[in-house]
Amino acid sequence: MSFYDSLETNTHSLTAAERRIGSILLSDRAGAPFLRASELAQKAGVHESTVVRFAQKIGYAGYIEMRAALRDDSRDTMDRTIAMRAEGEKFSLAVVINSQIEVLRSLPEKIPQERIDSVVLALMDARRVHVMGHGLLLPTVEFLRAKLSATGLHIDVITQTGRERAQRLAAVGADDLLVVLAFSEEYHRVSEQVKLIERQGTSIVLLTEEDTLLGGNLPEHVLAIPRDRARHGVIVSMTALCYALNYSVLLKRSDDSRHTRDRVQELLDAASDPI
């Protein structure tokens, strides 16, 4: 098992100080294998023994063994980068596609169907579903809105930032569901807002990347997508998760979904201008 797989598997058992160590290692994947335990401890603001305990907690005998695993992962990344450069520009599309495939294949292992099912139940129990995201994830937000709306669920989107986003979040009710689509850095910027919404009783679902797991302030439902070592794959995999949620809702709401489709067609037929 790679260092990154070991870290993800044991994330929930880490203390806040140990999560800081993990965040530093994830943020500098090239330099991390060359840090001494004392240097890593200084960067994280912890005692050196905490670094050793972190290594043991995620499955290694000690810091030396963990650093060896980091070097192996770094070497794999370097080999892949060298291969990409050696193959030249004409192979760049194939390399990107293979990276996407690698991440997609890992999803069923990383995100079991039981976790998808629990999110679907939360979607169906909600009075209204709010889907929040912006930036690069705006198309994915709109895609999820369109898919879930077609099943008959009441979907609203929150794509604003700053005061406008706060105003929209203030309207989210205790019996609603908030689905947050965000990369790691963006989620950490809004996590306190999300926790305020959760404290009033609102169910929260977070679709994100695996690095977010080290930050804390996580809601009950988290679907975290791994990246390959070349840092590809999140948006395509998030779209795949949206499909999985949509299909599961369709199965559980087949009659409601059929009624919605029939009603949409009836309204289209009644329009004087079908365009």
TrEMBL record:
GO terms for molecular function: carbohydrate derivative binding; DNA binding; DNA-binding transcription factor activity. It comes from the Bacteria. Residues 1-77 form the HTH rpiR-type domain. Pfam families: HTH_6 (PF01418), SIS (PF01380). Keywords: DNA-binding. Gene3D superfamilies: Glucose-6-phosphate isomerase like protein, domain 1, Winged helix-like DNA-binding domain superfamily/Winged helix DNA-binding domain. GO terms for biological process: carbohydrate derivative metabolic process. InterPro entries: Homeodomain-like_sf, HTH_RpiR, RpiR-like, SIS_dom, SIS_dom_sf, WH-like_DNA-bd_sf. SUPFAM superfamilies: Homeodomain-like (SSF46689), SIS domain (SSF53697). This is DNA-binding transcriptional regulator, MurR/RpiR family, contains HTH and SIS domains. It comes from Rhodococcoides kyotonense.
